[in-house]
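Bug #77: duplicate submission created two jobs. Keeping one. Sequence:
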Amino acid sequence: MKEIKAYIHNHRIGDVIRALKDSGQCNANAGCRNLTVVPVQSLLKAVDAREQHYSIELAEEVIHESKLELVCEDHQVDELVGIIARTARTGQADPGWIFVTDVVRAIPVGAM
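Kept job's structure:
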């Protein structure tokens, strides 16, 4: 089992989620679970000036972006990462990052 985390510009997240669902790979029956989107602040370069904001907490220029998280079967990783990478493109050299990690253990809440 693997966890995929992807940091994606906000204006691309809707298309990424739609592409994952349309692929048929990202639903509970296909093995892809726990699709979550979390708003985050990033120090990535903004696509344009409208995207950049000043963070008083960080004392830096930041962009608001989304962190997409999902858990999938090992054999699904390459296809799901490919969908995310293609759909999240912004035309920039560094539009975000995708991380894949092993899930050592998964326990449903209330199972113990």
